[in-house]
Automatic annotation (TrEMBL):
This is Uncharacterized protein. Keywords: ANK repeat, Repeat. The keyword ATP-binding does not apply. SMART domains: ANK. It comes from Streptomyces gilvosporeus. GO terms for biological process: protein K6-linked ubiquitination. Signal peptide: none annotated. Pfam families: Ank, HEAT_2. GO terms for molecular function: ubiquitin-protein transferase activity.
Amino acid sequence: MGEDPLIAAVRSGDAKAVAALLAAGADSNAVDEHGTPALCLAVDAFDLPVVEELRMSDPPVRLNCTAADGRTPLLRAIDRGACEITSVLISGGADLWRTDAEGRNALELARHWHLTGAEAELRHRSGTSGPVARRAVLDGWGNVCEELSLGGLTVRDGHAAILTELEPRYGIAPAFEELMGRALAEPDVDRPVWWSTTITLQGRHAPAVWAEAAALRDRPNPLERYCGAEVIRLVHLFDESDDSPFDVPLVDLFLPWAAREEDPRVMRALAAGLAEAMDPRAEQPLPALTRHRDREVRRRALSGLHRLIAQGDPEALAAAVARTHDADALVREAACTAVAQAAADSAAPSDALAACLHDEVEAVRVAAAIRLFLRDDPRGDEVLRSLGRIDQDSPYFAAFHDVWYHPRALGPAD
């Protein structure tokens, strides 16, 4: 008897095949020859797309299924250090109180990995004393993680982020300094522990959190300053109050801070916060920040110029047009979006976009072409037609929404 087609598709990491098989009636709870459910196999392979397909199946997959070792998919994801898969399983309703062979629930298992350390636990489980193979990988959400392999076992270093996400679900709220300490242990602010830490602090909705974050602005350690700026930015960003109570205080704090800040990581948070603010004062430093040495600062500053450009501000428009020649492709792409906010009957912005149709990076060409199309300028139509059919797997699928629903249809080539 051959292998179950769904199990074979899961093992090969073919999310499209998994989706097709599920749509045709395949059992999402199928198991392999060892009794391991398909969902557990996908978790073990760090395969978020397949996990998502199984999670969304109809009838639904059993999120708390277990293999021969008794571990649920959630416990397996925590063991693997797969923070994005852990988040998906938790949001889907995975049982947080199931335990592993040692009697540890999800929180206790995450805390064990965090306190022991990924390398030490990996050595313990594998019983191997040789060198640990390490490599940087992108997780299912595009975050950079370190993957460690030894003795046939592979884990990722997401346990601090997982622990930080789990604690509030068990009613645990570590002190601000304790949470920040977890993040500070990782110097790369783009790693998952930084997002987990700052979003957890933001979610407390306590005045003391704002005060503690603001007090970090004068710390000599730039990572502490970054933590403070990012927490404040997120408090403002996710506030749902009708009167936007954090808008003016954020600008009051960020304007003088940005004027003296030298660390590019901190400036990213400050630039993003100013770009997201509604207080008109926040726009003052943004044109100059589009020339900052850090590409992410430039990109975030551009996102805050849209209103000024739409209002006809010449300095803001000139800053955005200049960045269409930036050395970084992501900045050029952001510049195309910003430039397009200018009045549709303005020739200079359209000409700047048309010049980007010859960019060496396809994403920039497409961004420019879409903006021209929406301005009823046909100069970018050929770039759009050359992409062929745009489906959900295309990186341009979301961007094409406005093209498909625009009164002017994208006709075939002459």
